[in-house]
Specification:
By secondary structure, the chain is α+β, with helices and mostly antiparallel strands. Helix content is about 25%, strand content about 40%.
Length: about 210
């Protein structure tokens, strides 16, 4: 098995992730159990925009550094979700790509598109005016680890300014993630992906977080 490398694209990985207010014990265990990792992923911060759709839970769309990234849900195995990169796009985005790829990923009615291409601001205006779509500002402060050869992370996340905490483990190997969940004492905690967490925070879904 080729070893996972943090920050590099590999084949679709399985992941366990959850969100709540406090994972102090699990975060401390993750840090102590981690093998050494590259300094560049010790601590990272980013500002992103997630596009939330009332009718879509299968495609995860976010914008970071002026680029749009879409990941698609593949399957769930033993409670772990697998996601696959679907497309990357840079602004300005052509009308054709919005018609063929972007809006189909949102699973909503296509709005009237009058321009040949759309800048970032013009695209966000489309989202803001659509009744089933919402742009959500996300700030992430992420601390990277590697436990049982799984890529792990503890993150302080601001969702439109509301602070929550995320903790996760991802790998191509299901058994390694399951062992990590046990080792950091997250057995029985709900697996919640970013789409679900954000929808719960902004009120698109009437469900609580893990704690």
């Amino acid at each position: 098995m080729s070893e996972l490398k943090i920050g590099e694209i590999s084949k679709p990985r399985f992941e366990f992730r959850t969100f709540g207010q406090d994972f102090t014990e699990s975060a401390e265990r993750m840090a102590r159990l981690s093998m050494p990792i590259p300094e560049k992923v010790w601590h990272r911060e980013s500002d992103e925009i997630y596009i939330m759709s009332r009718t879509n839970d299968l495609n995860n769309t976010k914008i970071r550094d002026g680029k749009m990234d879409v990941k698609s849900y593949v399957t769930t195995t033993d409670g772990l979700e697998q996601w696959d990169p679907k497309l990357k796009a840079e602004f300005p985005i052509s009308k054709q790509q919005l018609v063929d790829e972007i809006f189909p990923a949102f699973m909503v009615e296509l709005p009237e598109l009058t321009e040949v291409e759309y800048s970032f601001d013009a695209f966000i205006a489309l989202i803001d005016s659509h009744p089933d779509l919402q742009a959500v500002k996300i700030h992430k402060e992420r601390f990277g680890y590697m436990v049982n050869n799984t890529i792990c992370e503890v993150a302080n996340v601001l969702v439109n300014g509301a602070k929550i905490v995320s903790i996760n483990s991802e790998s191509t190997e299901l058994e390694d993630i399951q062992q990590t969940i046990k080792d950091v004492k997250l057995v029985g905690v709900e697996n919640i992906n970013y789409l679900q967490a954000i929808k719960r925070i902004i009120g698109m879904k009437n469900l609580p977080l893990a704690n």
